[in-house]
Amino acid sequence: xxxxxxxxxxxxxxxxxxxxxxxxxxxxxxxxxxxxxxxxxxxxxxxxxxxxxxxxxxxxxxxxxxxxxxxxxxxxxxxxxxxxxxxxxxxxxxxxxxxxxxxxxxxxxxxxxxxxxxxxxxxxxxxxxxxxxxxxxxxxxxxxxxxxxxxxxxxxxxxxxxxxxxxxxxxxxxxxxxxxxxxxxxxxxxxxxxxxxxxxxxxxxxxxxxxxxxxxxxxxxxxxxxxxxxxxxxxxxxxxxxxxxxxxxxxxxxxxxxxxxxxxxxxxxxxxxxxxxxxxxxxxxxxxxxxxxxxxxxxxxxxxxxxxxxxxxxxxxxxxxxxxxxxxxxx
Length: 331
Ligand code: TYM
Hints:
Strand order of the largest sheet: 1-2-3
Order of helices and strands: EHEHEHHHHHEHEHHHHH
Radius of gyration: 21 Å
Number of strands: 5
CATH topology of the largest domain: Rossmann fold
CATH class of the largest domain: Alpha Beta
Shape: globular
Bound molecules: ligand 1
CATH superfamily of the largest domain: HUPs
Strand content: 5-15%
């Protein structure tokens, strides 16, 4: 058991291809070799004020999708963030040494202020301290995440390091963002701009449990241009995005075939999209099946939730005992 690994995903709906290639796929690969803690970030989701029904339903759905992707509760500790209130205690401690200026400068906070100007709550501002608490509560060293989380990981190191310095101790290691074997990943969306994500709109993302009809509709509608006019010309962003999606679900030969057609100005985007639909449907089919099976198995899901809660609690309690002692709570 080499590293201590910890990561989580917010339950905002179903998982999409970005979540899978940026995070979940790495979770599954890492569980065999490392001590892993994978949670469902259902405290973080409160920043957008979900209804109680949605909060539970979405969190349960992420658990199902974790398991459908191959996470094994006997190898990794899989739990709900809200089942570990020690996280909230550590969050409180970290907030005492997190400064307004540095929190206001975080890109994801600035984005949220733009997206939801009527709900700029303190939870949004302190999102990075809660995320740091999630990670360092298990003394994690590696954090499998997509590229968009890089800045949050940098903040996590800042807070961990600050705590160590402040109390002249070495309670927390400094964790690194991690992707199995490569650089951090950014999966693009289908609208020709930015990354794949839930808040970018339903049509922009392919979800692991999308029906073939939905996949076809989304891909066939994806933005393209009028086609290349010069041999070997640089691809515009929306075309590059289609190729990036093809690289993750199609064979290298298929990608090379369409790349070649593009370079010779002979590409027909309709053909490329048809191929992408076929490969995407084949890639997601096993997830869809397992998601349907697992969703119906309430007893098993309950057992997994209880088992994860207990294991996560054991790890967190040890850290919190140490932290409380160092801070000066010594009764
Ligand atoms: P969230 O829920 O937005 O996304 C979950 C994971 O999916 C990755 N991801 C992507 N990767 C590549 N391309 C994309 N288009 C794409 N979209 C999403 C994200 O990088 C992330 O790894 N703050 C986190 C949740 C969190 C967390 C943590 C993560 C809370 N506490 C502690 C790690 C450790 C978030 O909102 O991710």
